[in-house]
Amino acid sequence: MQCFYYFKDKSRVARERKSAPAIPNRSRSEGSPSPTTKKTNKSSGSAVSTGSSLSHRSIPALFEEKAQNLQVFTFNELRNVTDNFSQLNKIGEGGFGSVYKGYIRPRNGRGDRIPVAVKKLNQNGLQGHKQWMAEVQFLAVVEHPNLVKLIGYCAVDGERTIQRLLIYELMPNKSLEDHLFNRAYPTLPWNTRLNIALGVAQGIAYLHEGLEVQVIYRDFKASNVLLDNDFNPKLSDFGLAREGPADGHTHVSTAVVGTYGYAAPDYIETGHLTIKSDVWSFGVVLYEILTGRRSLEKNRPRGEQKLLEWVRQFPPDSRRFSMIMDPRLGNQYSMEAARRIAKLADSCLIKQSKNRPSMSEVVEALKQAIQTSETGGTTGPTTDMIEEVSSSTDLDGERNSDDARASEYSRRRMAHLEKLRENADATGRRRFMLMQRAKVQ
Ligand SMILES: Nc1ncnc2c1ncn2[C@@H]1O[C@H](COP(=O)(O)OP(=O)(O)OP(=O)(O)O)[C@@H](O)[C@H]1O
Ligand SMILES: [Mg+2]
After folding, report:
1. Are 291 and 188 in contact (CB under 8 A)?
2. Against a cut of 0.85, is the pTM above it?
3. Secondary structure (3-state) at 316
4. Ligand 1 atom nearest to 219, measured from its CA
């Protein structure tokens, strides 16, 4: 899913662009400009603002200190390590550009070559450049096991072309999005899902609370959670990250950018960005982890396209709750832990942003849920589901229960069809099509 750039207030955007402090010299000579910035104390809409308190150093100031840890690559070097950006080496594509696998020599020249991911900006616009620079600056400053490591960068302002590239440690197991939603991958086991949720929560808590400056990530979603060899999660993509508000301010005012389905409604409505915007997005991803469904899915029945609206019909304390769980999990999960996580997600999704928990509170709640899971809460959905389907009364006194049941029936039927399709030989596949046709009539 790609980012949106939704500009609420054009005049504000124009102001923000004018005040952007962070554009390196775009001279027309060939060279590698460094992503340093002019310093200013004014919060702006630039890629990296200096919105934090005067007593704290800003990201650009911290970047100056850490910049020497990054390797600066020439375009030719990167062309060589990716075999001229060969399609065979392409491992991903996003809104920023294409991502290629390659190997580089260690900085000290000794030892084996290191596998890396090279992200190449394919749009030359100001927005792409600003995101590239934000990413370089934030990732140079942050350091945490759950944040992807930036190895270096390349920036070339040539006669004819402008090149912007980023070189990261390679994350061999693709993204959480791939594993949750792409049926070509084996089911992500329950415990792995919990560890991923905890890991990314710790990463975001570090951004919010563990640095000299507060960092708002702003684009939290399953595709930005990359997985290492052992399925440990690392957050990538800091192109939209922002410094938090200056002391005495409650929010940063900014153009609204992010991804549909994940951005907090208060942020979309007002352009007021806070760390609680990230907490909302985390709540969305928690529900994606539980259900195996995307936050927005156009090809679902109408009442199920928006994940948050759909799950609302199955509250965590209700007997119907188990129906939201990813059918691919079978009964291999702790029901009690799942309920706890859904409650936690609900608290992250409270409309009033100030009532959402902090990310360190989220981390604690997840640790407790994991403990519940390990000490063996009730397992699996089967009994709940059977009771639910056979029950003719609305046990929770909730409205829409008939609708919910009908939609659940339809969901399970579709899941069944999906399974058939996956396992089917040619005959099976024909049967699947017939059944679908039967359903339409
Ligand atoms: N460090 C990395 N190691 C391995 N694969 C990576 C790495 N960074 C990115 N990728 C791959 O490239 C894909 C595209 O990443 P990218 O962040 O550009 O786009 P996206 O997250 O899918 O979408 P968006 O542009 O909205 O953020 C990822 O989903 C992942 O599969
Ligand atoms: Mg991304």
Report:
1. no
2. no
3. coil
4. 27
> Can you count the helices (H) and strands (E) in the chain?
14, 14
Residues 250-280 as b/e (b if ≥16 CB within 10 A, e otherwise) read ebbbbbbbbbebbbbebbeeebbbbbbbbbb
For the chain, state the CA radius of gyration.
23
Q: Whose CA is nearest to atom 11 of ligand 1?
A: 92
Q: Using an 8 Å Cβ cutoff, are 312 and 220 in contact? A: no
CB 362 within 8 A of CB 201: yes
- 236 CA distance to ligand 1 middle (Å): 8
Are the C-beta atoms of 283 and 342 separated by less than 8 Å?
A: no
415: enclosing H helix or E strand:
helix 401-423
Name the range with the highest mean pLDDT among 43-52, 180-189, 394-403: 180-189
Lowest mean pLDDT of 3-7, 182-186, 266-270, 326-330, name the range: 3-7
The mean of the pLDDT values for the chain is 79
Ligand 1 pocket test, pick from 146, 236, 296 with the greatest ligand atom count within 8 Å of Cβ, gives 236
* Sheet (strand 90-93) strand order: 71-72, 150-157, 162-169, 114-121, 97-104, 90-93
Instruction: Classify residue 55 by its DSSP letter.
Output: T
Q: Tell the residue number behind the tokens 């129906």, with chain if given.
A: 323
- Ligand 1 atom nearest the C-alpha of 1 is 26
- Please give the torsion angle defined by the CA atoms of residues 36, 41, 45 and 48, in that order, rounded to the nearest 10 degrees: 30
- 170 Cα nearest atom in ligand 1: 3
Least confident of 141-145, 150-154, 435-439: 435-439
Single-letter code of the amino acid located at 15 = R
Give residue 54 CA to ligand 1 midpoint distance, Å.
35
Q: What is the pLDDT of residues 228-250, one digit of tens each?
A: 999 999 999 999 999 998 887 88
Q: Is 219 a catalytic residue?
A: yes
**What residues form DSSP beta bridges with 416?**
none
Which protein residue's CA is at the shortest distance from atom 18 of ligand 1?
A: 94
Pocket (CB within 6 angstroms of ligand 1)? 2-3, 91-96, 99, 117, 119, 148, 168, 170-171, 174-175, 223-224, 226, 236-237, 259
Structure-token pair, residue 398: 């909730």
Q: Report the DSSP beta bridge partners of residue 120.
A: 98, 165
The closest alpha carbon to 374, from 382, 366, 362, belongs to: 366
